[in-house]
Amino acid sequence: xxxxxxxxxxxxxxxxxxxxxxxxxxxxxxxxxxxxxxxxxxxxxxxxxxxxxxxxxxxxxxxxxxxxxxxxxxxxxxxxxxxxxxxxxxxxxxxxxxxxxxxxxxxxxxxxxxxxxxxxxxxxxxxxxxxxxxxxxxxxxxxxxxxxxxxxxxxxxxxxxxxxxxxxxxxxxxxxxxxxxxxxxxxxxx
Length: 190
Description:
Layout: H1 11-30, H2 38-45, H3 49-56, H4 59-71, H5 83-99, H6 101-112, H7 119-140, H8 148-165, H9 172-186
Helix pairs in contact: 1-2, 2-3, 4-6, 4-7, 5-7, 5-8, 5-9, 7-8, 8-9
C-alpha cells in the first residue's frame, strides 16, 4: 500500500475525516472491536471503502488516526499555583485517563498504526505540550523547573510502561510518587 497522502485541511477532506472518525467512534461503542471493518465504517460514514483505503491505507491506520484524535488533550493543564501541585495533578489525571479501558485501547491503536505515520509521536507530542505548559508557567512564577525530558523520562515513561504492561498496579499515588522522584532526586538545588 502506498504511503498516506497529505491531507488538505478544510473542505471535503475535513468533512470526510469527521464523518469517518464519527463512524468509527459510533461503531466502537456498538460492537466488538473484532467486528470493525472498513466496509462497515464506510457505510456508516456515507463514503466508499476506497475513500478510506486511499486516505488511511488500512483499518489499523484509520483506528490509529482516530485514537490520536481521541488522545488529544481537551484543555490546558490545571494551574494550581505551584509546579509540584501542577505536575502531581496533571500526572494523576494522565494516569487515570490513559489507564482506563478506552485509554489503553486508544494507546494500542495509536501504536498499531503505520509506525512511519507519526501517530505514536503525536501522542508523545501531546504529553510534551502539556508538560511544557506546566514548566513554562512555573518558570514565569520564578520557580526552579526541571527540563521537559526529565519529566518525560521519570514521570510519563514509567506510567506508560505500567499502563501497557502492568495495568493492575496503577493508582494516583504512583503518579505523585513519580513526580516526587523528579523533585527529590533529579532537580539540582537552586
